[in-house]
Write a structure and sequence with these properties.
Length: 129
């Protein structure tokens, strides 16, 4: 009945937000047609980035961590390699890499305007028998 459609981010600088996702994570940009708006595709998912609506001024984002939609999670095969590649591109890794539980490790990347992206490496658990 329901299917995932998109994530919509509002940004004071939509161009910088779009550049963050294209440069660091390989999101593909599609022209949107309206000034200040960006349409990106990341692993087949739609990410819309727009400026603040002048009729409904936006407040700055809350501090991390917070209640509500807190971060965007991206899966990776090799967390250490992903973090090294992102650091080489100038990314700010704010948490990790760290073991977060049996079979998974994580790290967090801080983006423009406090947007957080979690990198998650899942490893299958093996039965010792």
């Amino acid at each position: 009945m329901f299917r995932f459609d998109h994530i919509h981010l509002r940004a004071a600088d939509p161009g910088a937000m779009a550049a963050f996702f294209t440069r660091l994570f390989g999101a593909e940009a599609t022209p949107e047609g309206r000034p200040g708006r960006h349409i990106l595709r990341l692993d087949g998912q739609l990410l819309l980035i727009a400026p603040s609506n002048p009729d409904f001024p936006a407040a700055p984002g809350p501090a991390f961590p917070h209640l509500g939609l807190e971060h965007i999670g991206l899966g990776v095969e090799d967390l250490d390699a992903a973090c090294a590649a992102l650091r080489a591109k100038g990314a700010e890794i704010t948490v990790g890499p760290m073991q977060a539980g049996p079979g998974f490790r994580l790290a967090f990347v801080r983006g423009p305007e406090g947007v957080m992206v979690e990198l998650l490496e899942r490893r299958p658990q093996h039965d010792p028998c």
